[in-house]
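Let's sit down with a protein and look at its sequence and fold side by side. Please make up or recall a protein chain and show it to me in full. Label the sequence line and the structure token line clearly, so we can match residues to local backbone shapes. Go ahead whenever you are ready, and we will take it from there.
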Amino acid sequence: MNRCVLILALVLAAALPAHAQRLFERNALRGELVIVAPPEVKLNGEPARLSPGSRIRNPQNMLQLSGGLLGQKLLVHYTVDGFGQVHEVWILSEAEAARQPWPKTPAEAQAWTFDSANQRWSRP
């Protein structure tokens, strides 16, 4: 009996949306990303490169292949690795895009305060 309840709970959990509110890393910046020819991208109009092992998540938090996004202008949150390559990318939903302010540069992220529980930034 307990096993049936556990299986039912797992099935129901799998049917629910991935996450009502995604949690972004503190070092995630906001920008515009265009996939040019993977791994080549334009980030905020400047040439950039996806890192080996980079991950792109769509608004439903599912992994998205870069080849399926060619040429699209995407509003994203992103992180860069130690070599300056784009590593983690989250394509924003309308609700996430409306969340203001969000830092666009590392200098802004250093100067502002981040509330990770509420996923909100505040300017000094």
Observations:
- Residues 27-122 form one domain.
